[in-house]
Design the sequence.
């Protein structure tokens, strides 16, 4: 997990997308993620474009690629017959027409782990804002999602570290392991054990939840042992104390990236600090600038178009921009 030298990474990141060493957009994004000195701010989209398409669906992924996003965040669960599919909840009640399809089988479990892939595929996906299902859209497998994202956008897998072996196997087969960022709250020892089994690994990001004591302890363990992950995801309760800026300072000093979630106020310091506040503000910078000031360079958002446009005006979101 030790970071390769800053000099080497900087050299790699200076190479253009057209160069043989970086042959596609996803690789260029990954290079920015690995470069501790770049000013580029990486934009991650929460479950894809769920405002216009069913969350975790292929069209939702396609939509954020067209927006110019860098990462699509997805969630995975395993079916009864051991296939990884994209679904945030452990059941399909909220995101599909399960009740309609299995209305004559009241004993049928809606949990992903109790359904076969064929049963999952018989369900149609629903938009977040509508109860009506879209008959032509079905829950994709992880393989189908990665086939869609390959070389076009990086992927952040949430709710998936328990399936590390299975995810890596699919990513390696498709040649996208370097384009996948998987996150979790496992101790360093568990992460190292997983990575030592394989010659190639996905990018890994520890989740530091400062709302819980174990979050601070996890950050301490990484820093005290000299481990330098690509980034840390930071969640904090409020901006009335120094927990968040202190964590940012320690992470910056270590040389890792800082990832924040502006999707919900509860994850980023409370009311007025999230995407909805930025959307309602005359200037989105009233919300987003505070994160850049703390050294944040990776933001997960539910308002990708808004954030990308603002970052572009700041000169902080162009893969062709020279440092």
Sequence:
């Amino acid at each position: 997990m030790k970071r390769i030298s800053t000099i080497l990474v900087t050299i790699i990141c200076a190479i253009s997308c057209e160069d043989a060493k970086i042959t596609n957009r996803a690789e260029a994004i990954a290079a920015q993620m690995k470069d501790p000195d770049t000013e580029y701010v990486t934009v991650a989209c929460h479950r894809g474009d769920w405002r216009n398409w069913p969350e975790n669906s292929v069209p939702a992924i396609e939509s954020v690629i067209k927006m110019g996003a860098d990462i699509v965040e997805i969630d995975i669960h395993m079916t009864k017959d051991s296939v990884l599919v994209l679904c945030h909840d452990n059941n399909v009640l909220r995101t599909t027409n399960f009740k309609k399809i299995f209305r004559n089988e009241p004993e049928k479990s809606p949990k992903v782990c109790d359904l076969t892939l064929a049963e999952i595929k018989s369900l149609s996906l629903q938009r977040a804002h509508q109860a009506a299902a879209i008959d032509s859209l079905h829950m994709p497998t992880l393989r189908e999602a990665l086939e869609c994202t390959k070389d076009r956008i990086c992927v952040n897998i949430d709710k998936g570290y328990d399936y590390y072996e299975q995810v890596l196997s699919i990513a390696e087969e498709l040649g996208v392991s370097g384009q996948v960022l998987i996150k979790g709250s496992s101790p360093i020892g568990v992460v190292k054990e997983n990575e030592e089994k394989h010659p190639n690994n996905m990018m890994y990001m520890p989740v530091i939840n400062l709302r819980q004591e174990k979050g601070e302890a996890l950050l301490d363990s990484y820093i005290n042992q000299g481990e330098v992950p690509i980034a840390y995801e930071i969640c904090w309760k409020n901006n009335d104390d120094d927990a968040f800026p202190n964590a940012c300072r320690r992470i910056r000093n270590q040389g890792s990236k800082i990832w924040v979630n502006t999707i919900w106020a509860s994850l980023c310091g409370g009311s007025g600090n999230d995407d909805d506040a930025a959307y309602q503000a005359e200037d989105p910078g009233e919300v987003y600038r505070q994160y850049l000031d703390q050294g944040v360079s990776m933001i997960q958002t539910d308002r990708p178009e808004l954030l990308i446009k603002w970052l572009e005006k700041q000169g902080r979101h162009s893969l062709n921009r020279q440092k």
Summary: The longest strand covers residues 71-78. The two ends are 26 Å apart (CA to CA). The first helix runs from residue 6 to 14. The chain has two domains: 6-79+141-313, 84-134.
